[in-house]
Amino acid sequence: xxxxxxxxxxxxxxxxxxxxxxxxxxxxxxxxxxxxxxxxxxxxxxxxxxxxxxxxxxxxxxxxxxxxxxxxxxxxx
Length: 77
Hints:
2 helices; 77 residues; two-stranded antiparallel sheet; globular; alpha+beta; 43% strand; four-stranded mixed beta sheet
């Protein structure tokens, strides 16, 4: 199965590690260190700020996709 996360991006559901709500997450030092070790795959949201971040494992590489769709909506899909 696949998950559409907005901006014509589709990812495989079996690759998903976690979906984070960026509106609620504490964006402190620990989060910044975490992001330093993750490959940011998609982050072009010119219309509005991203609402969620989807963390996936792809061929041994941890990648993060930003999405303008809320984490709750993504989890329901």
